[in-house]
Amino acid sequence: MFTPQDHTFVVCAYKENPYIGDTIASLQAQTVTTRVILSTSTPNDFLREVCDTYQVPMVVNPHPHLAGDDWNYGYDAAETPLVTMAHQDDYYDPTFVERMLASLNAYDASELLIGFTDYFEMRDGERVDNNTLLRIKRIMNAPLAHRCCNGSAFVKKRILSLGDPICCPAVTLVKQNLGASPFDTTYKNSCDYKTWVDFARMDGRFVYVPEALVGHRIYAESATSLNLGEDIRKGEDLEILSSLWPRPIAKLVNKVYALSEKSNAL
Q1: What is the 3-state secondary structure of 68-127?
Q2: How many other CB atoms are found less than 10 A from the CB of residue 70?
Q3: Which of 37, 92, 178, 254 is the most buried (most CB within 10 A)?
Q4: What domain range is 145 assigned to?
Q5: Mean per-residue pLDDT over the chain, rounded
Q6: How do residues 129-160 score in pLDDT, each as one tens digit?
Q7: What is the CATH number of the domain that holds 89?
């Protein structure tokens, strides 16, 4: 059985983000006490002040490259069997850890790869619970809420063959079954998608909690919006989809998926 002491939030921080204090506050407001650390490859006085204010330890990646390298560094620095990579501009419902632990503990720990929750969007200070993109992702993820499906490599890969419905900051990783440095380090934007596809080929469960317990902030300066604007994500996603489909089908799926993701490009 996993307990709150078995979990760490790793806040992935980059430069000086205005929302990071609110994110850490939401992590420290959980209904159960868990650990929080901040990981960065861009240490600065702003982040040091944030860490002092919230009494959060900072770890610094001395060899930065792409996002996956930074995530691996923070993930490896966490000393607990469960790790959630918290993005610096998102929000976590107070029951996130409590609900995640309850869902993971319904299974034998040796069977688990990741657990993840549903999410909502935050736009211009407003909570958005429903739009076309969110509804599509919920439909795609629905089979993974069931024991009969969430351990099937076929089901996991077929879901991911239609795009990436898994919200990265909503994912809790089970270190004992994933090992060290599990994130892809070849893609600039789609390293999370590539990582989930890699995991899907492994024996183990993707446990989906169909409750919107993470608020994903959408704004023009976010990494996702910038990379979509530069068409970085579209090219990377095509490569990933081509590992799951013949190239002509992958191109068709990618066109549809890219259109659905346009809502993130502000």
Answers
A1: HHHHHHHHHHCCCCEEEEEECCCEECCCHHHHHHHHHCCCCHHHEEEEEEEEEEEECCEE
A2: 25
A3: 92
A4: 4-221
A5: 93
A6: 999 999 999 999 999 999 999 999 999 999 99
A7: 3.90.550.10
